[in-house]
Every structure is written in C-alpha cells, then in structure tokens.
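Structure ticket #2291
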Amino acid sequence: MTAIPRRMAALAREYAPALALLVALVGLWEALVRALDARPYILPAPSAIWAAFLETRELLPAHLEATATEALAGLGAAAVGGVALAVLIASVPLVRRVLYPIVVASQTVPPLVLAPLLIVWVGIGIESKLIVVALVGFFPIVVSTVDGLASADRELVALVRGMGAGKLAVLRHVLIPSAVPAFFAGLKIAAAYAVIGAVIGEWVAAKEGLGIFIIRSQASFRLDQIFVAIAVIALLSIALFVTVHLLARLASPWNYVDHAADSKGEPRP
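Resolution: structure written out below.
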C-alpha cells in the first residue's frame, strides 16, 4: 500500500468512532424531538436545521466570508506579534520579568468586554474584529513559543556558542528550530478560538458575519438558523485547526514520523 492510501486508511480508522458517535447523537436528537413533540422555537430537530440551511444557503456565503477573513487575518497578526514578543521575552530577562506577567494578566479580561471598547476606539469596520481575534490568539502563541525557546537543548546551545556563534546565530540555528513544534501547538489553540473571537466582535457591531447572522436569527426567533450558524462556525474552526496541523507537518515532519514498522519492516510516515 502506498503512503497516501495508507494515511487515508489510518485517518479513517482514527476518526470513524467519533463520526459514528456524532451520527448516533444526531439520530437520537431527531428521535427525541419527534417523540416529545418539542416546539421548533425551543429545540428544532436536525431535519428542521437542515431545512433552515437550505433556506439560508444563499445568505450564508457572504457572512461566512466575512467571518473567515477576520479570523484568518487576526490569526496571522497574532502569530506574527506573538512570535516577536516570545523571542523578546526569551532573549531579554528584564523583558520577561516586566511583560510576561502583564501578558498573563491580560487574559483575565473577557473579549466580550473589550469588543465594545474597540468599537468606540476604531469603529465598526473589520479592524475591531481583527484586534479581538488577535487578542484571543495572542496568549497561547506567546506562552507556547516561549516554552519552546526555553526547552532548547542547553548542551547544543553551549556547543554552538563555543564554536563562535553569536546570539542571533544561536537563535536562528538552535532556538527557533526547537521552538517550531511548540509554536504550532499554540497556533492550533489560537486557530480553534479565532472564529469565536471574530463572532464575538461581530456581536457588538457588524454589517456582515456569522455573529450578526446569529443576532438577526435570534431577533426573529429562528432557533433553527442559530443552529445552522453554530454548525458553520464549528466547521470553520475545524478547517482552520486542520490547516494549521498540516502546516505543522510541513514545517516539522520529523515530529510526525511513525517509527512503527509495517509488514515489510519499513518505517511509515
């Protein structure tokens, strides 16, 4: 069996139980709603949610594009700013003592509280949503990258320095490569929350986006449409997470090598 079919088969075996459980839960949900004769404005059945999706499928792409743009741009800003600050914190002890506690303390402020302030300061455009997403994703990226830089092999660092390398060379050739897996671990967490950050920003004020779609559906007592938005948000978050995972595999393939031998005794990825 070639590498790609083998990987696809492995993925199918890994996620088949979760998919089966999800299908069973949806079927149970449908059966309970029908058995209890629940009103649609209290708990719509999955079939009603699907019908609502078909009804709004022409409206969703514009809202999805707005939210996805905000999430991607904000995540990119969080990655760039987070790595820069992490390198600074890891390189300068004084900066670590001064800024690291402030970064940790900043996470005690809920994004839902910051969003209205950002609307006042920068307006209702995309900028406020980008800042919310960046703030949501900034912390896990900084913390993970700092830990990755700190976990570099001290003996290897000493060896490279003994060969005459300066701080920048050590950072480039030793510290940053050792921090790549930790960076992507933080980026995965940030990607999972990026869409939520965008939706929170849209709840406060927006012209388009899944957040404003939820607000309008709530005002119309269309609980089925709210569930449609929830499903789209979940799928978008999963897509971002999977994308980051694939980028991590490309950036550090040695961390994803399966050293177990196959039937021919060869290591398989």
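Closing remark: The CA atoms of residues 39 and 76 lie 43 Å apart.
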